[in-house]
Amino acid sequence: MNSYKVFISGQKYFAEEVFHLCRRLEIEVVGVCCPLDDKYIGAAARRFGVPIVPAGTLTADKMPACDLGITAHSFDYIGKKTRYIPRHGWLGYHPSLLPRHRGRSSIEWAIRMKESITGGTVFWLNSGIDRGDIAYQDWCWIPPEYYLSPQESAGKLWRDELCPMGLKLLETALKDLLNGVIKRVPQDHKYSTFEPDTNVKDIYRPDLLMIDYNKKTAV
Description:
The protein is of the alpha/beta class. The chain is built from five helices and seven strands. It has helices at about 10-25, 40-45, 80-85, 105-110, 150-180; strands spanning about 5-10, 30-35, 50-55, 70, 90-95, 115-125, 135-140. Strands 3-2-1-4-5-6-7 form a seven-stranded mixed beta sheet. Helix 2 (about 40-45) links the parallel strand 2 (about 30-35) and strand 3 (about 50-55). The longest helix has 29 residues, at about 150-180. It starts with a strand and ends in a 41-residue tail after the last helix. The model is unreliable at about 205 (pLDDT under 50).
């Protein structure tokens, strides 16, 4: 029986853990796309002899044939031709309860908006930003004290809850795929929100809670 093959586009700790998850499940990682100086998945790929495509250069011509693509803390756009190469498509993990809080700063916006719960979503990539069909979701509480320092608390919530949640959801997804189970539920777009990257300093969106850029954290 041929092994199940995946390609991972990502960086940092989360991507490395996805890499090791695939190996534990006896899934063959046929390539990764990451920054060349990445000390996590990049180092793991070199250690196990997995080819690396430099971040920002992934195209259909450089994409190997595989069963599944996975984005794991990736900020590279996966183009149409590249999305169609894996037999099953591409799965990504987004740290919010999609369709709420699409965009790069989803954790921080959930905290800034003083929401009580947030969560994580494994979803199928399409041409939109965080708009693909939902495969798996889970949720967690946002402690009220986090509202006092949204930027710092976003990092803590990622480390303590949303990163481990993403790995568990991806493990469930991969095990299901190995057993021929594919789950897809379209997002209900009437509940969708999209917020800008809080690291971009020229945001002006009067319909959103404004950021005081004179302070590192908002009170």
